[in-house]
Amino acid sequence: MCKDLKESFNKIIDGNKEWMEFVKNDTSGRFEQLAKGQNPEILWIGCADSRVPANELTGTKPGEVFVHRNIANVCVHSDMNMLSVLDYAVNVLKVKHIIVAGHYGCGGVAASLSSSQYGIIDNWLSHIKDVYRLHATEIDAINNQHEKENRLVELNVQEQVLNLCRTSIVQNAWKNQQPLAVHGMVINIGSGQLIDLNHTHTNNDSLTKVFKFD
Ligand SMILES: [Zn+2]
User: Fold this and answer.
1) Distance from Cα 43 to the centre of ligand 1, integer Å
2) What is this structure's pTM?
3) How far apart are CA 93 and CA 77, in angstroms?
4) Structure confidence by residue, pLDDT tens digits, 176-203
5) By the number of CB atoms within 10 A of the CB, which of 69, 79, 103, 195 ranks highest?
6) CA of 25 relative to ligand 1 center, distance in Å
7) Radius of gyration of the chain measured on its C-alpha atoms
8) What is the largest CA-CA distance in the chain?
9) How many CB atoms lie within 10 A of CB 159?
10) What gap in Å lies between CA 202 and CA 97, rounded to an integer?
């Protein structure tokens, strides 16, 4: 390995040594408990962006948040990865909250508003172009590009929340009286604030008829 590669890799190894030391010195018994299994109450679906780590942002510890991340926190019904995480979180872990967390300054959302090509990701970002299509009048009425992108960040979260609510997994949990809330939130990286978009669903009442399962 060249010097450059070694340095960045060693940073991880050194960091882990520090973590191991921390775990060794912890006397609460929580790591012994965590080694046996997990019981998180929250499923976090966030962006893969390196600046939005779920635990640090929410002051939660290992074992408290089940996490799924992808570029621009997209929830697509045909994504087996997302559906598997969702199904396991809802039906096995019985999480109480699902949080879709977008963030201002999201590169994926910004790219979806442009005509530039970035590779395979362009096909993934098409899902966000679909969100734009639904809200084109509102987005187009905003003059400032940065504000356009940030509004699409919010609308993307809102639509991904709805996508989750439309899944058979979430609707069956509600049908079985399982307490489950699906929230939409946006992170302001500069201030660290996690903003609630007040777009929370705890049942399928607000879904239009075609999306509701009996
Ligand atoms: Zn992002």
Assistant:
1) 18
2) 0.96
3) 21
4) 999 999 999 999 999 999 999 999 999 9
5) 103
6) 35
7) 19
8) 61
9) 23
10) 9
Residues 3 and 132: their CA atoms lie apart, in Å, by 45
Query: What local confidence, expressed as pLDDT, does residue 3 receive?
Result: 87
Q: What residues act catalytically?
A: 47, 49, 51, 103, 106
How close is the Cα of 158 to the center of ligand 1, in Å?
A: 15
**Mind listing the pLDDT tens digit for each residue in 129-159?**
999 999 999 999 999 999 999 999 999 999 9
Give me the residues paired with residue 28 across strands: none
Work out the pLDDT band at 1, boundaries 50, 70, 90. confident
Q: How far is the CA of 50 from the centre of ligand 1 (A)?
A: 9
Give the separation between CA 136 and CA 141, rounded to whole angstroms.
8
Q: Tokens 């929250």 appear where? A: 42
